[in-house]
Design brief:
InterPro entries: DUF309, TTHA0068_sf. This is DUF309 domain-containing protein. By secondary structure, the chain is an all-alpha fold. The protein has a domain of 105 residues: TTHA0068-like (Hyaluronidase domain-like, Orthogonal Bundle). It is globular.
C-alpha cells in the first residue's frame, strides 16, 4: 500500500492513501516545498528498514549530493525501526542532517541549535554505549564537524553549501575537504 502524498483536487488538505494529512507539493534538494506542478527532487521513501551499514551508505550518498534533508529521512527510518539501545545515535545523526539543512537554507540560529543538539545526543549515546565508531561512524570527528559548522553559521550568518559542508560519516575525521 502506497503512502505517497496526493494533491487534493477538491482544494482541501493533501492526504496519503491512508487518509493522513501529508503535503504533496514537490520539494527541492533541501526539502523546501515548491509550487504544485513544479518538478522537484524525488522524496526518500518512508519506513524503509535498512541494515545500519546500508543506512550509513545511503545517508552519506545523500549528504555528498547536497541533500541533507533526505539524509535526515534515512536516519529517521533507522531511529524508528532500529533497536531501542541505538535510537539516540540515529536521532542525533538525524538532528545533524536537519541542522545542516537549516544552515544551508540560511537559518543560522536553527541550524546551529540542531547541530549542537545532535552532537550532544551522539556524545551522550557514545558515553553510555562505550562505542567510538559504531558501524564505522567516527562519532568524535562528526561531533567536532557539527560544532565547527555551528560556529561558522553563527559567526557568518549566511547559508552554507550543503554539499561542500557534507560530513564524512565513516572514519575519525568527520569533515569533508572544503575548498
Amino acid at each position: 500500500m502506497s503512502t505517497a502524498p496526493q494533491a487534493d483536487a477538491g482544494g482541501g488538505r493533501d492526504r496519503d492513501t491512508e487518509g493522513r494529512a501529508r503535503n504533496a507539493r514537490p520539494r527541492d534538494g533541501l526539502g523546501r516545498p515548491l509550487p504544485y506542478g513544479t518538478e522537484g527532487v524525488a522524496r526518500q521513501p518512508e519506513g524503509v528498514t535498512r541494515t545500519p551499514g546500508e543506512t550509513v551508505a545511503e545517508a552519506q550518498s545523500l549528504l555528498d549530493a547536497g541533500k541533507p534533508f533526505h539524509a535526515h529521512e534515512v536516519f529517521e527510518d533507522a531511529w524508528k525501526s532500529g533497536p531501542a539501545e541505538e535510537r539516540a545515535l540515529w536521532r542525533g545523526l538525524a538532528q545533524l542532517a536537519v541542522g545542516l539543512t537549516h544552515a544551508a537554507r540560511g537559518n543560522a540560529t536553527g541550524g546551529a541549535r540542531l547541530l549542537r543538539r545532535g552532537a550532544a545526543g551522539i556524545e551522550e549515546w557514545r558515553s553510555a554505549a562505550g562505542q567510538d565508531e559504531p558501524y564505522g561512524i567516527g562519532v568524535l570527528g562528526l561531533c567536532r564537524w557539527a560544532r565547527e559548522l555551528a560556529d561558522a553559521v553563527e559567526r557568518d550568518g549566511v547559508a552554507v553549501d550543503a554539499g561542500v559542508w557534507a560530513p564524512r560519516l565513516r572514519g575519525a575525521g568527520g569533515t569533508a575537504d572544503r575548498a
